[in-house]
Task: inverse folding
């Protein structure tokens, strides 16, 4: 069998359980940290327990295999999910964005950052600039 990467080993643990006995201890050891980190998404305490520099890594992978042997029929939903920041949709007009961009000499990257993380403050500042340019308080 060819060298096994962590994705292949994860597929063996979750789906192709009958191929697990072909995985060598060296391959288990090489993929231990990545797999243990991924298992921590759902099983944090168990992963922390295995995250010890003196742990026998192939035995820890064997234990993970035993945990998932009867409980999974395929890759679990939580395995590939990552936390992503949700972008807030900016409802600031293009004219207002051009105004603030010109006023502060900002780049498109700066505007992107401000609309994503400081959208409300940006709106307030745009209104302040508009009042300033119109001469009203």
Result:
């Amino acid at each position: 069998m060819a060298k096994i990467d962590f994705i292949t080993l994860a597929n063996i643990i979750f789906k192709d359980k009958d191929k697990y006995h072909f995985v060598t201890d060296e391959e288990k050891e090489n993929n231990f940290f990545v797999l243990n980190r991924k298992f921590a998404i759902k099983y944090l305490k168990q992963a922390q327990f295995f995250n010890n520099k003196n742990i026998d890594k192939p035995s820890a992978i064997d234990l993970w295999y035993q945990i998932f042997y009867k409980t999974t029929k395929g890759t679990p939903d939580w395995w590939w999910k990552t936390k992503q920041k949700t972008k807030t949709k900016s409802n600031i007009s293009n004219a207002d964005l051009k105004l603030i961009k010109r006023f502060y000499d900002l780049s498109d990257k700066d505007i992107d950052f401000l609309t994503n993380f400081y959208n409300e403050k940006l709106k307030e500042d745009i209104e302040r600039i508009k009042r300033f340019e119109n001469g009203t308080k």
Notes: DSSP finds seven helices and no strands in the chain.
